[in-house]
Structures are given as C-alpha cells and as structure tokens.
C-alpha cells in the first residue's frame, strides 16, 4: 500500500490517501520519537485523553515548567525591547542545550537581571533626588540672598532718615522699635521643595485657604524639565518655599505637600553650610552617575548575551512545550511501560515515519522499537492537499468556503484558471492589467525579503495572494486586448480597422456610418467601434451573450465534477438520479440558449432570442416565423421542453425510495458478519466497538431533503445563469468609469492649453485611476468572482464538510504560542 512512494502525488484533484495508524512507543524513546515526528510534520495525533482535564494529564508538570520558562523569555524580550536590542537572527544553531540546564540558566539570568534593575532603580532614584536637592539649595539660596539684600537696603534707608532732618516723632518710634524685647519676636519656620508646574497654582490656592492666608509662598521656575524620582518621567517643576508660623500651620503644609506629590528637601539659612552642602551633593552626583553608567554597560552586555541565544532558547521551549502537549494526548500503558498513540498520516509518508521512529529508537538507546500498526476504521479521514507557494493561495480561496470532504473533487484545480479569468472578464483593460502586474511583480521579486519580515494586515494579505493577483493581471491583459481597451483608449495593435468612410472627406461618418472596406479585425473588438453611437448596444449584446456562455459552461463543469465524485465513490444512485437529470434540465433550457447564441453569431440572423425562449414555454407549438434560426428548431424545442419537465420528477422521486431500499438490504445483512480473529488488538476492537450499530432510516427527512435539493437546483439553474450577467454589468461599469476619467479629466485638462491645468488634470486622473479602478474595482471584481465560484460553481458538486489535516509540526509552531 504505497510502500515505494516517498513523495506526495501532487494531485490537487483528490486529496492525499490517508490512513489511521497506531503507534506503540516505549516510554524511554517517547520524547525523542515525538520530537522527530514534529520535525517531519506528517502525523496528526488524536487525543486519547479527551476526558481528562489538563491538570490530570501525565506531563502537566513539564508543561508548567515550559510555561514558566516561556514567561522568563517574555521578560527578557521586554527588557531587550526597552534597551533597544532585538534578538539575533544569526543565533548559534549548534547550541545543544538541555531543557534542565536551560531552566537553571534562565532562572539565574532572570534573578541577575531583576537585581540589576532594582539596583539601577534605587541609584537612579537617589540621583534624581540629589539633583532636585541641588536645585532647591540653589533656588532657595537665591530667595534668602534677595531677602537679605532688600532688608539691608531698607535698614540703610532707615538710618539715613534717622540722620537726616525728620519729624519729631520719627526718632521716638525708631527707639521704641529698637528697644523691643527679642524674646517676644515671632520666629518663622519654612518648608522648601519642588512641585509640578501645572499644579503650582492649585497648590498655592489650597495653601492659602487651609492656613487662612497665614503663610508666605515664594516660587521660582526651573527652566529645564526635571526627572521625577518617584515616576522617573520628565516633569516641569517649580521650586517653592513656604514661610509659616506655628506647628498647626506646619502640619497642614506637610499634608498638602504629600497630597500634591511635592518633594520636600531641608534647607539651612547659613551661607557657609549652603555652599558646603551644594559641594557635597555635586560630588555625590558625579559618583552616582559613574556607578549608573557602569551598571548600564554591565546590563547591556548581559542583554546582548541573552539576545544572541534568545531565538534558540525560545524555539527550544516552544518545541518542548508542544512535545509535552502531544505526549499528553497519548494513552499510557503502565503494565507494558509504553505509550499508545493514534493518528492520521498520508500513505506516502509511511516509510518516512517508520524510518524516523527507528532513528529515535537507536538515538535513545531503547531495547524495544516502536510498533507501527495501520488500523481499519470507518471514520472519515482528514483532507490533505500538498500545495506549493503558487497553488496554496488558490486552495485557501476554496478552503474559506469549506474544507473538501476526504478525496472529493477539489475545485481548487479549476480555480487556478477560472477565478482569474472571470475576474479579468469584469476587469478587462490591458493598461490596468499591466499596472496590477507591475505591482504584484514587486512582491514576487522581493518575496524572500517580505517572507522574513512582519508585515501589516493589509500588506500581508496582498503578499499572501501575490500569485493570485499576478494571474488576475495576466488574464486582465488578455481580456483587455480582446476588448481593445488601454485606459479606455483603443489601439490598432493587430492591424488596421475593417471599417472606413464612404468618401475621402468622411463628411457623413457620424450620420450614415462607416462601411466595411477590408477583412475583419483579426483579434478582439475592432477599434472603430469605440466612440460610435452603436458602441454601447454592440458591446452590451456581445458581453451579455458571452456572460451566459461562460456561466453555462462553468455550471456544466460543476455538474460533470459531481459525476466524477459519484463515480469515484461508486455511488450509482447519484449518477443516474442526480447527474443525468441535472445535465438534461440545465442543457435543455440554457444549453439550448447557448446554442442559439452561437448559431445567431455564425449566421448573422436578426432573430429575437428573448422571444424564442419566452414562447418556448408559453406556446411551444406556435410557428417561429422570422425567429427561426435552423431547420427543425420547433421540434427540437418541444423535445427539450419535455425533457426538462421529465427531469424534475426524475430528480425528486426515485432517489429517496432507492436509498430506503439500499438501507433495508444493508441492515438485513448486518446479522451475518465475519468472526473477529483471535489475534486482533484489543485496543482496535475497543476503538471500533459499536461502529456498526443500526441507525433508523427517516424516509420523510430524506424525501424532504431531496425535495429541497430539487427545488434549489431548478430555481438555481435560472438564478445562477442570471447571476453570471454580473460579468457583463461589471465589465460595462469598469469600461464606462475608465472612459469618463479619460474624457472628462485628462482630455478636458488637455483642452485648456495650460500647463498648470494639465498637471492638475494628470494628477487627478492618476489618483482616480489608482483609487477607483485599480483598488475599488479590483476588490469589487474579486468579490464577484469569489461569489460565482462559491455559489454558482461549487454548489453543483462540492460538499465541503471535511476537516483539514493538521499535523504535529515544529514548522507550524506559532511565534505567539503560549
């Protein structure tokens, strides 16, 4: 069973063949086996302990240890980010670090770093406090110096008045003032410090109200912002000095200072002591600055060492945590000292898995090898498509609708061509297509650089779909050449136009029209159609009929794929009672309409197809008259109408009864089954116990389901065909918008013969083209093409009720994995 195959089939039409495998792994080699399987990335484990909580599982302690190490690594990353460092991408890959040693090392580094941070914070706080103290000493000293100088000036003024010829009362008052008892003079206290400048006015007002005006406040602005010792942030502050009298006033001032976060510092009136304190503080600041710088250098060296090994350590912790998570999904057999694992793997990977398991056994020096046993099961396997960087984006478009059922036909194969083609039908302009191609070529050329960077949400989405956009651009260039539109301007690229004027003067060109003077234009729409009065009716007719042809072709493809699905799964009922009547119904009506369109194009007939299709239902026996396109058309229409009418009950009635009969026969045969062989594994028997239990067949539910399916197909055949007319509508809208921007912006600006107006016009034209046509119209056409694939195409055959193959792989370990 695929023993010689070492590579996937790369067959996108069917998912890879899968098998359910049981592994019996000795405990001593279990960790290494899971690690090697994670490197291989081709085995999806089943959780055999789903009934247990995470804390009841065997390796909960190890996961907790890994979680603690991950926390320490996050702490290191935060510290590196604050220090402006980033983890080294050229980390030493040959570091063979054991998890236990790493745990000890991380613990030591964390303790050392925390101690460094605490010491740095203390030193920085002391440094900031001393800087503030120095400022207070300088500013408060200025207060006292100015006060003493003003007092000395007043005293000299008083002495001068005393010596001069004054009034009789003046010497008496001065004498009375001088003989006052010094013990009765009031001694004023003061508090000095710094307060935030934005709160200084409020601080002053509260002081005044709390002490009823019995304080004197003096403030001085500090020019440069000051680092606050508490918060460590730069704050604009004022130095203040509050003079008060009494202990009660002092207590109130202290409380107000605490409330406003004002830092208080002691101050002495003695000038000599002031100078001495400032000198000491300056010396201490220099010492602290040197100590802080040395500490920062030591901390930076430590963080650089951590940054060099960070990626390796982080990857190791994530790998170990994912390994233990996987080991917790395994069932432990204590008696046999082994772990039992079950999971899915592709058939082509059998030899690869067996070889890595054998390598794990040898590397772990185990005496017993791992047993690889394929299980038989009725459970639906996961879906696995082996994609590459080109096909993965197209597969994602399909997967967004629903994951394919195991080995059903995959629409992703056809989406690679049909999706960009239908987009291009709506977006056809080879000028716009070239712009899209150049934009996506930038992402493709530099994809190695972009893939290693962290991109924004929109940029990452565009980069992920770069090959889809490239295909959309190439097909847009192709359809643009067919429509003959380059920013709405036609060109005679493939030869001269087939039409010319009736006379050399072309005087009647706008009234009588042009005549055909040479062979038809070889490729696409003749450029002479553009700008004529009949351009819109001609292009509308062409694009509308083309949309119907494309729609009927794609819906037929969907129904044909339903046949291949039924053939692959050997479902004869679906072939004869679903595929055949659906093909008859769709092609009896809309296949016939497509035939009429082709015949009308080939013969140049003037028949009205609307009239033909309407009266095919209303009065099929009436003569067609001038609407007859070929001999025997009336008889063919009657036959097709009867076939369409017959196909509806053909879809509705036989299938439910045949399913009921099939179920009864299967149930009747369940009483006779082969005896189980005696050497069957009890785990396998237990796993599949009860898988053949009888389920009741609800005929009413099956019939109602088939009724809904029939009605949906019949009505959908009409609505889906009409839905494909969006190809015509969006193509018309894109063409007209492009024409308006060209005629009403660019040509209008050109007609003014003014260079400034021309530059403005070109700028507006570029902005409108990029913003509306290359961004909004691209998104609009993309969404409409998406809808045509999801609804009109895939509902004909695609069930999409499978689940994705999610192997245990270290390559898929997320960076944000907790």
TrEMBL record:
Domain of life: Eukaryota
Protein name: V-type proton ATPase subunit a
UniProt-recorded Gene Ontology molecular function terms: ATPase binding; proton-transporting ATPase activity, rotational mechanism
Localization: Membrane
Membrane-topology annotation of the record: Multi-pass membrane protein
Family: Belongs to the V-ATPase 116 kDa subunit family.
Organism, as annotated: Herrania umbratica
GO biological process: vacuolar acidification
Coiled-coil ranges (or none): 92-133
Role of this protein: Essential component of the vacuolar proton pump (V-ATPase), a multimeric enzyme that catalyzes the translocation of protons across the membranes. Required for assembly and activity of the V-ATPase.
Keyword entries, A-Z: Coiled coil, Hydrogen ion transport, Ion transport, Membrane, Transmembrane, Transmembrane helix, Transport
InterPro entries assigned to the protein according to its UniProt record, in alphabetical order: V-ATPase_116kDa_su (IPR002490), V-type_ATPase_116kDa_su_euka (IPR026028)
Encoding gene, per UniProt annotation: LOC110416165
A GO cellular component entry from the record: vacuolar proton-transporting V-type ATPase, V0 domain
Keyword tRNA processing: no
Transmembrane segments: 421-445, 466-483, 546-564, 576-599, 635-653, 755-776
């Amino acid at each position: 069973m695929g023993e010689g195959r070492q590579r996937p089939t790369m067959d996108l039409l069917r998912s890879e063949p899968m098998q359910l495998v049981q592994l019996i792994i000795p405990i001593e080699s279990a960790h290494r086996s899971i690690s090697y399987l994670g490197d291989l990335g081709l085995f999806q484990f089943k959780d055999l302990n789903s009934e247990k909580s995470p804390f009841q599982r065997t390796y909960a302690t190890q996961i907790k240890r890994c979680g603690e190490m991950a926390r320490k690594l996050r702490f290191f990353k935060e510290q590196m980010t604050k220090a402006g460092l980033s983890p080294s991408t050229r980390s030493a890959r040959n570091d063979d670090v054991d998890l236990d040693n790493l745990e000890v090392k991380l613990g030591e580094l964390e303790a050392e770093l925390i101690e460094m941070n605490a010491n740095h914070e203390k030193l920085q706080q002391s440094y900031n406090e001393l800087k503030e103290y120095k400022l207070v000493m300088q500013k408060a000293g200025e207060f006292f110096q100015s006060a003493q100088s003003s007092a000395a000036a007043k005293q000299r003024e008083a002495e001068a008045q005393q010596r001069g010829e004054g009034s009789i009362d003046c010497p008496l008052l001065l004498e009375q003032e001088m003989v006052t008892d010094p013990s009765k003079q009031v001694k004023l206290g003061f508090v000095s410090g710094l307060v935030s400048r934005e709160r200084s006015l409020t601080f002053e007002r509260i002081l005044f109200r709390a002490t009823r005006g019995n304080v004197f406040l003096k403030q001085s602005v500090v020019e440069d912002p000051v680092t606050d010792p508490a918060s460590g942030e730069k704050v604009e502050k004022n130095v203040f000095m509050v003079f008060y009298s009494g202990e009660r006033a002092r207590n109130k001032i202290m409380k107000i200072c605490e409330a406003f976060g004002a830092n208080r510092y002691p101050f002495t009136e003695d000038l000599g002591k002031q100078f001495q304190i400032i000198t000491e503080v300056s010396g201490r600041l220099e010492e602290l600055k040197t100590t802080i710088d040395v500490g920062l250098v030591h901390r930076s060296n430590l963080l650089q060492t951590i940054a060099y090994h960070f990626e390796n350590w982080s990857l190791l912790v994530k790998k170990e945590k994912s390994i233990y998570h996987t080991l917790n999904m395994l069932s432990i057999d204590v008696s046999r000292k082994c772990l039992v694992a079950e999971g899915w793997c592709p058939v082509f990977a059998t030899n690869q898995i067996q070889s890595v398991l054998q390598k794990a056994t040898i590397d772990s020096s185990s005496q017993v090898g791992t047993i690889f046993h394929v299980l038989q099961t009725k459970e639906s396997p996961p879906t696995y498509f082996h994609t590459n960087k080109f096909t993965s984006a197209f597969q994602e478009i399909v997967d967004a609708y629903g994951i394919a059922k195991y080995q059903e036909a995959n629409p992703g194969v056809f989406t690679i061509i049909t999706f960009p083609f239908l987009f291009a039908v709506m977006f056809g302009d080879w000028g716009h297509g070239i712009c899209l191609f150049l934009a996506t070529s930038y992402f493709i050329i530099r994809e190695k650089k972009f893939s290693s960077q962290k991109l924004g949400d929109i940029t990452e989405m565009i980069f992920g779909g770069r090959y889809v956009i490239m295909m959309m651009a190439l097909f847009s260039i192709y359809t643009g050449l067919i429509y003959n539109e380059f920013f709405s301007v036609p060109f005679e690229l493939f030869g001269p136009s087939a039409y010319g004027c009736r006379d050399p003067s072309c005087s009647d060109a706008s009234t009588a029209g042009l005549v055909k003077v040479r062979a038809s234009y070889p490729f696409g729409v003749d450029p002479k159609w553009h700008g004529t009065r009949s351009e819109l009716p001609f292009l509308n007719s062409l694009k509308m009929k083309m949309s119907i042809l494309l729609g009927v072709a794609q819906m037929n493809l969907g129904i044909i794929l339903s046949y291949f699905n039924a053939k692959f799964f050997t479902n004869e009922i679906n072939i004869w009672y679903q595929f055949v009547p659906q093909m008859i119904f769709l092609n009896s009506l809309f296949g016939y309409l497509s035939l009429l369109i082709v015949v009308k194009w080939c013969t140049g007939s003037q028949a009205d197809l609307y009239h033909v299709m309407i009266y095919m239902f209303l009065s099929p026996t009436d003569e067609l008259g001038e609407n007859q396109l070929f001999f025997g058309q009336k008889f063919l229409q009657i036959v097709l109408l009867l076939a369409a009418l017959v196909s509806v009950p053909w879809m509705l009635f036989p299938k439910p009864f045949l399913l009921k009969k099939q179920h009864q026969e299967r149930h009747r045969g369940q009483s006779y089954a082969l005896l189980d062989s005696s050497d069957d594994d009890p785990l396998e028997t237990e796993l599949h116990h009860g898988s053949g239990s009888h389920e009741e067949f609800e005929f009413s539910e099956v019939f109602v389901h088939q009724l809904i399916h029939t009605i949906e197909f019949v009505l959908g055949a009409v609505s889906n065909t009409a839905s494909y007319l969006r190809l015509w509508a969006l193509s018309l809208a894109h063409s007209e918008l492009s024409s308006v921007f060209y005629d009403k912006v660019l040509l209008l600006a050109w007609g003014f013969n003014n260079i400034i107006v021309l530059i403005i016009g070109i700028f507006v034209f570029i902005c409108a083209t990029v913003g509306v046509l290359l961004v909004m119209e691209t998104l609009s056409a993309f969404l409409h093409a998406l809808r045509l694939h999801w609804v009109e195409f895939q509902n004909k055959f695609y069930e999409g009720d499978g689940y994705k193959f999610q192997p245990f792989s270290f390559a898929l370990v997320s960076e944000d994995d907790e």
